[in-house]
Amino acid sequence: MRRRRRFRAAEAAAAVLLLALGTACGSRLPESDFQRDDRTHTRVPAPGDGSPIRVGIVASATSPVGGNAFTGPRDGARAWFERLNERGGIDGRRVEVRECDDGGSGVGNNECVRRLIDDGVVALVATTALDYAGAPLVSRARVPDVGGQPIGAAYATYPHLYSVYGTSAPRNGKPGWDGKLYGGTEVYRYFKREHGARTAAVVSYNQAASAAYARLVERGLRAEGYRVVTEQVDFALPNFRAVAADLKEQGADLVFDAIDGHGNARLCQAMDDVGAEVTAKVTNVQNWTSAVEDAYRDAPRCRNALWATGSSRNFEDTGHPAVREFRDATEGLETHAQWQLEGWAAAKWFTDAAGACAKEPEGITRACVDARVGRADGYTAGGLLLPVGFRVSPEPPTHSRTCLSVARWQDGQGWVSQGEMTENCFDVPQLAYEP
């Protein structure tokens, strides 16, 4: 089972609101804490002397999309490393986390990347950047970026960058295959097969990125034989009530969107107001959080029709030991989210690779961690992720057997898993698109 990157609604919403912000991060350490890495000409912590293992986490914490929109993976990774250090670290060495908020801008991201590389981090972990402008620098420095969120096309473009979802793209400096990425139709196949859905609506803003993503969703739905209803609202003055009324009139079974979280909540409220009931209001992994009841407090019917799909195990699935460990370590967080679990999985991935490197003569180095992660073929972080790999396919995919994690929100229970994610699998076509 090979997971391939899918362009998601979060990307469209982020593109809608992208602004240029600057930030700074990090600090320098004494020269005695470093030795020179002859391969990258960058100072790195000396192995084997008990010094901390430094990792960097870049997150667009203060991005224009809004507070906490991009902090979930950071929080999950931070929790993993805190628990790891309590247990003795890696081979007796504690992990020292260097965090950097890039402000959601390319300028800020470049600054974060430069400082963290200069500070001698062995790897970046759980990167979640609205504008990953520093990706080429990370790749040139051969710093492994482990388990990052593929918000843009960087993880399907540059070597040494490893998305939490994996990719089979060549990563030769061009996105995907000659500038094209591919996404499957497994989400649409799932609702068609499991719930008999036949009519689907796609709601977008009258904004280029939002509209482009909506067109991609429409293509996938039509490829699966759906009747598709398109709805577009003004970004500045959206009339969600009119959209909701038309959804009711058209008899939509499913609603997909290319709008932000606030817009989704307003759309759901409008659907409740006009009595538009659907089989599923489908959202994405970024909105898969425990804050649903509050965010959708004015839309109880629509709220209980919310479904989320992704490539990782439901954070509410505490019957699974790996999820239970995550929840125990993060019980102090105000809310829980799927992106936190994926950040936790990314940090575990780095730890597994670094632990293996500790047994090698060269110790825990950038080159060793990079080689370990790059050879991954079926990595699951103890069952938290669908199998992840980076085996290159020279030709773009036409079809793929793809699995997905599915959960439905239910008041009083939270997100309820719908089947086992390793069994929600479909042979589906892969559709090309340009990032």
TrEMBL record:
It comes from the Bacteria. Residues 1-26 form the signal peptide. Residues 30-52 are annotated as: Disordered. Residues 52-412 form the Leucine-binding protein domain. PROSITE patterns: PROKAR_LIPOPROTEIN. Keywords: Signal. InterPro entries: Leu-bd, Peripla_BP_I. Residues 30-41 have a biased composition (Basic and acidic residues). Pfam families: Peripla_BP_6. Belongs to the leucine-binding protein family. This is ABC transporter substrate-binding protein. It comes from Streptomyces broussonetiae.
